[in-house]
Amino acid sequence: MGVLLARGRARRSGNGWWVGRVPGPASRYMDLNWRRVFRMGGVMKRIGTIYLRLASAALALGFSLPSLAAVERWKLNMTPGVTEVSRQVYDIHMTILWICIVIGVLVFGAMAVAIFRFRKSRGAVAATWSHNDKAEVVLTIVPVLILVAMAWPATQVLIHMADTRNAEMTIEVTGYQWKWGYRYVDSDVSFISSLARNSDDTRQLGSGLSPDQVKSYLLDVDRPLVIPADTKVRFVITSGDVIHSWWVPALGWKQDAIPGIINDQWTLVKEPGIYRGQCAELCGKDHGFMPIVVEVKPKTEFAQWLAAQQNPDAAAAAAAIATTAEPVAAAAAPGQG
Amino acid sequence: MAHDASAHRDEHGHDHKPHGFVNRWLYATNHKDIGTMYLVMALVMFFVGGLMAMVIRGELMYPGLQLVEPEFFNQMTTMHALVMIFGAVMPAFVGLANWMVPMMIGAPDMALPRMNNWSFWIMPFAFTVLLLPLALKVFFGIGAGGPAGGWTLYPPLSLQGGDSVAFTIFAVHMMGISSIMGAINIIATILNMRAPGMDLLKMPVFVWAWLITAFLLIAVMPVLAGAVTMLLTDKFFGTTFFSASGGGDPVMFQHIFWFFGHPEVYIMILPAFGVVSEIIPTFARKPLFGYKAMVYAIASIAFLSFIVWAHHMFTVGIPLGGELFFMYATMLIAVPTGIKVFNWVFTMWRGSMTFETPMLFALGFVIMFTIGGFSGLMLAIVPADFQYHDTYFVVAHFHYVLVTGAVFSIMAATYYWLPKWSGRMYNETLGKWHFWLSTVFVNLLFFPQHFLGLAGMPRRIPDYNVAFADWNLVSSIGGFGFGLSQLIFAYIVWDCVRNQSLAKAADRVWEGARGLEWTLPSPAPYHSFATPPVIEDRMLAHADVAH
Ligand code: HEM
Ligand SMILES: [Cu+2]
Ligand SMILES: [Cu+2]
Question: Model pTM?
Fold first, then answer.
């Protein structure tokens, strides 16, 4: 599917499927001429086109091929993330999910049995009872006990998450329409992080470019936030205009960025890596286009990076000498899903 | 109505319907006519909102933008929600109440028929005002289009909208007035106009559910009106209720909005509980299990719905104690909700079931509403909600409770009572097709949205990373299928009302049906119960007062 999508989007010219060769359902799909579609004008016409394409799309589903890009597709579940907190959140999620599944199997199972056994066509005769006080009491108390069992670990985790004390560094995060501002409060480093150029070009209506060809489409930025590994980092989060929400799933939480209000949260990532997220609160037309990238560096590398930011001239000199690439977005982004 | 008892028997011969369109419909005071108008309007709005959903699913079918600009996409999500909530689901339930409450309690009409007229006729104007900015933009290219800040109208974003803000707020005010008047009417009818012998604890659960819902409406619609009025003055008259720069607080809006908003979601589901509690006993041919428990469960859900609002705001930065309180209170709602589900299953147990279309929709409701209840319970767990919030997981949750919950129950109710309304049996084969197609497609549409949300896809975005492509495609295919399947519904209703050759419905349309409405002829005469009926317990579904 990924390949099919990629080709279909990337192709800028060629005949529409309605006039060209029609070798098979898969290539019909690929040959769709988007330019043509846009020129048809009117939203209504475009919807009509979507309906037309439905049949071929359904067929194309059958021809799914693994995507070339290393993207995890058909993903079903929450990420366990990369912090202690995110793993606790994941565990709670799985616990309540399983409790719900078990209750669901019992209730729906009982329904299935009833639907199968007590049908008139099998000669079932209706009983006349209409209440059973014991059953009502049991079915009130048992759920309460289950709820307590769920609330207990949830409370523990919540208390843990709310403790922002003893942070080793503080970063101020400010949401803007439609980018993020980061400020390292203890040093005077601050910068703006916005959607990476190639994603931005591709996402324009009728760009003719394929999202499959863009690494980390819509999840990449020009300048990622850099934080040290193995350090308790406190975030103070606010906004310069409307409400946004700062969310990196691998860290296990999101927190609203609200003008006039400062919220705080914290994280402690053990392993260096690159973690991606998005704004989660509707903030206007480009709400879908203000991603978040957090790059976690080993402590010493982070210290070097921060020093370089504080003194850009020295950094430039250092970069000229060093043969290793400057580890910011440009170098870090490729290779990531 | 000066009929004597014998005239009441054969009054469908001479109904005294007002003549002429204006007299009959514009000046309508008859509860059945007004009910019909509400239901027709709801169906129209269902398709209007549905078209918007098709645009949304069309855009989300593939990664990349293909159909619409992001700004227009946001207008679609905003208007889709407003139209479906205020235009389709709520009016449909009010329509059902208008038709059925008087007939179920043995009253000749609603208590306040002229106010009833007024509550209905405000609605078409409200929706004209609501839809106007969007319609002007789409059809004539005038203006900037409709509101785009989400149905929740959170400031400061919603205040960035243009003049459409004023239109939306004015429309919300009108809808609120209409709802409050409708609610007053329902309460007055139920409390004052029950036939002798229709004790409160013998009333059909549908009537109970609506009585409680009406109190919720009266309690919270003014709160919404207050919230949007403050938005209005913030936008146009320089106040700063919700602006931090002037000493206000954007979070305060959310508190006020959700103090309305959470009871509002129960306003949309309690009548559904009522409908399902009527239908399942009928087709199981067995009395509702635990009638009293069912009524108390509805009442306690209504009470709890006032103290859980901040579960929509777990990520705004509420203090720990607040988070814990709202988490526990929200989890508590699962208890009475669970009682309802268990009791429906117990009602089926040892029954003698048949599976006509209303029953199919009711069973679909029980299963799929419960799935929505499970995700609701998961969303109540604050640490987990830090991940779920504002993702497609929430979208999946509320569509399970609203589409396969509220909307399915409205369809079940329509099939259940349509023969009583029209006097003819609808096309059962098509009805079953409608059910099965709807059920298959609606699950294709919404179940994968759980996966998308868990995988990290935020809600209200027009475009996404390719990792989300596959489930979005599945969801869109489900969406188009579900949308198309609803045309069958429109056809069935139209056919049942118009097609003279369909079989005539019996008075007691369904073998197991109990309740006063089934003692009336089919179609129900224009004026029913002009003289109060003599109620015998065997007529009623819930005459077993002790329980
Ligand atoms: C078992 C009962 C229920 C529980 C515990 C529950 C819980 C929740 C929670 C915690 C949220 C907030 C999720 C978030 O934004 O992070 C939510 C959202 C929502 N729920 Fe429920 N819910 C329940 C039943 C219902 C019912 C019956 C309806 C409507 C018929 C409903 C409609 C909604 C809607 C519309 C939203 C989303 C509002 C929005 O943000 O646009 N829920 N629910
Ligand atoms: Cu945003
Ligand atoms: Cu709620």
Answer: 0.88
